[in-house]
Amino acid sequence: MRVRREVLGDAHVDRAVANTDDFTADFQDLITRYAWGEIWARPGLDRRTRSVITLSILTTLRAEEELAMHVRAALRNGLTPDEIREVLLQTAIYAGVPAANTAFKVAQGVLRESDDGGDDRSA
C-alpha cells in the first residue's frame, strides 16, 4: 500500500479504498499485493523506468482511464512533460498513430489539470 500511495497519490488510493465493496475487494487486494507489492516494489527498475513502460503499454492497449492515472504517476515519479511526450511519440511508431493520438489527448488533459493545480479527480 505504501508503494501504491507513493506512485498514485493518497487521493487516488483513498478513493479506490472507499469504493471497495464485496464485489471488488478481491481485485483491490490482488492489485495491491501483486502490482504494487511485488512488481512496482522490485529493485530491478526504478520508478521512472516503470512509468515509461507503463505509459507505453497503456497507450498500446488504449486504456485511457488507466493512462490518465499513470500520466499523473509518471509526473510524481519524476518524468517531465517533455519525457512523457517522447514516450508517446516512441509508442506511436510501434503501437500505431491512432493509439498515440488518443494518448496525447489524455496526457494533454492531465498536464493541463496539473498546471491548474488539479487534484487527481478523474483517476
TrEMBL record:
Pfam families documented for this protein: CMD
InterPro entries named in the record: 4CMD/NDH-1_regulator (IPR052512), AhpD-like (IPR029032), CMD-like (IPR003779), Decarb_PcaC (IPR012788)
Stretches assigned to the Carboxymuconolactone decarboxylase-like domain: 26-108
GO molecular function, one term: peroxiredoxin activity
PANTHER family in the record: 4-CARBOXYMUCONOLACTONE DECARBOXYLASE FAMILY PROTEIN (PTHR33570), CARBOXYMUCONOLACTONE DECARBOXYLASE-LIKE DOMAIN-CONTAINING PROTEIN (PTHR33570:SF2)
Protein name in UniProt: 4-carboxymuconolactone decarboxylase
